[in-house]
Recover the amino acids of this structure.
C-alpha cells in the first residue's frame, strides 16, 4: 500500500479519525455539537505531541518527512477547520432561538438571509483555516532554506488554537441559561480573521504545551460534567 504507517504518523491519523467522527456525529440527526467538541479536544491532544513523536525517529527518510508534513496539514484542515464549522452548524440546528426565527412565517426572506449568513460565516472560517495552513507551509519551507532549526514565533494565530477556543464557547453555552449560538458564530469570524492576521505569537515550549493540554483536559471534564448535570 502507498503511504507511511509507522509510529511517526499514528497521532496524525488518530486526529483525522477523531475529526471525521466528530463531523459525522455533529451533523447526524438534529445535531450533536457536544460530542463533536469532545472529538475536537482529542484532535488538539494529538496535535500537541505529533511533531515530537515524529522527530523522535532519527532515521526518517526525506520522503517520510515530506509525507508527515503533508498529512499533518491535511489533518489540521479537517480537525481545526471543518470540524469547528460542523460543530457550529450543529449548534445552529439545535438552537431553539434560531430555529424559531428561521421557521417564523413573519420572517420571510429576512429569516432566509439570516440563515444563509450564519452558515456562510462558518464556510468562510474554513477558507481562512485553509489559507493559513497553506501560507504556513510555504513560508516554513522558505524559512528552512535560510534559517533552519525550529521556528520560534508564529505569524497569525495557529489553526490548532481552535481546539481550545471553540470548546470554551461551547462550555459557556452549556453553563449559561441563555442561547449563545450567535456568539459561537461571532467567535468563528474573529478566529478566522486572526488566522490571517500578521500578529506575532511566540511558539510555546514544552511547558506551554503541557499547560494547554491541561486546559484542554479541564475543558473536557467540565463539558462532561455539564452534560451529565443538565441531563440529570
Amino acid at each position: 500500500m502507498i503511504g507511511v504507517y509507522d509510529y511517526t504518523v499514528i497521532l496524525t491519523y488518530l486526529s483525522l479519525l477523531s475529526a471525521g467522527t466528530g463531523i459525522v456525529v455533529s451533523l447526524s440527526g438534529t445535531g450533536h455539537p457536544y460530542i463533536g467538541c469532545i472529538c475536537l479536544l482529542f484532535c488538539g491532544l494529538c496535535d500537541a505531541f505529533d511533531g515530537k513523536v515524529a522527530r523522535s525517529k532519527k532515521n526518517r527518510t526525506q520522503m517520510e518527512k515530506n509525507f508527515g508534513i503533508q498529512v499533518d496539514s491535511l489533518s489540521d484542515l479537517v480537525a481545526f477547520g471543518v470540524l469547528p464549522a460542523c460543530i457550529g452548524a450543529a449548534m445552529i440546528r439545535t438552537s431553539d432561538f434560531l430555529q424559531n426565527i428561521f421557521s417564523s412565517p413573519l420572517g420571510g426572506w429576512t429569516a432566509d438571509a439570516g440563515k444563509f449568513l450564519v452558515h456562510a460565516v462558518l464556510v468562510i472560517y474554513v477558507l481562512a483555516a485553509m489559507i493559513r495552513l497553506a501560507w504556513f507551509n510555504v513560508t516554513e519551507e522558505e524559512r528552512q532554506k535560510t534559517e533552519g532549526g525550529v521556528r520560534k514565533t508564529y505569524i497569525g494565530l495557529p489553526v490548532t488554537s481552535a481546539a481550545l477556543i471553540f470548546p470554551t464557547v461551547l462550555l459557556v453555552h452549556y453553563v449559561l441559561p441563555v442561547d449563545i449560538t450567535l456568539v459561537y458564530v461571532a467567535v468563528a469570524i474573529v478566529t478566522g480573521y486572526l488566522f490571517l492576521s500578521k500578529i506575532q505569537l511566540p511558539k510555546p515550549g514544552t511547558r506551554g504545551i503541557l499547560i494547554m493540554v491541561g486546559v484542554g483536559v479541564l475543558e473536557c471534564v467540565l463539558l462532561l460534567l455539564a452534560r451529565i448535570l443538565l441531563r440529570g
